[in-house]
Amino acid sequence: MASKLKALQSKACQASQLISKHGSGYYKQLLEQNKQYIQEPATIEKCNLLAKQLLYTRLASIPVRCEAFWKELDYVKHLWRNRQDLKVEDAGIAALFGLECYAWYCAGEIVGRGFTFTGYSV
């Protein structure tokens, strides 16, 4: 156990040195590449305005998202009505989608329990 702790400390030290050496250069490069997205001057009022614009833009997109949802639902209903015409590929995709939903549910349960598998924390 102590050797694993020493190895972990060594890796953390190496990562810290790498970040301190190259971090500011990466930060400057990232800002330079994305300068068209930076608002000048960066004031509290401007940040509040952008936050409100994001919120209301998202709210305005809800009807479009609802319409897309109902179209998808109609497509699924159509597929279910004509299920005898389904291909093996379509059934496989549906099964994989169901499996993925179940896996995300299980992962959410594990995260909700504090990353324990049995529900008991040690």
From TrEMBL:
Pfam families, from UniProt? ATP-synt_G
Q: Does the keyword Transport apply?
A: yes
BP term (GO), one: proton motive force-driven ATP synthesis
Per the annotation, which location comes first and is thus the protein's main one? mitochondrion
Question: Which molecular function terms from Gene Ontology are attached?
Answer: proton transmembrane transporter activity
Instruction: Name the InterPro entries on file.
Output: ATP_synth_F0_gsu_mt (IPR006808)
Q: Which family does it belong to?
A: Belongs to the ATPase g subunit family.
Q: Where in the cell is it found?
A: Mitochondrion membrane
User: Any idea what this protein is called?
Assistant: ATP synthase G subunit family protein
List UniProt keywords, sorted A-Z.
ATP synthesis, CF(0), Hydrogen ion transport, Ion transport, Membrane, Mitochondrion, Transport
> Would you tell me the Gene Ontology cellular component terms?
mitochondrial membrane; proton-transporting ATP synthase complex
Decide whether keyword Nucleus is in the record. no
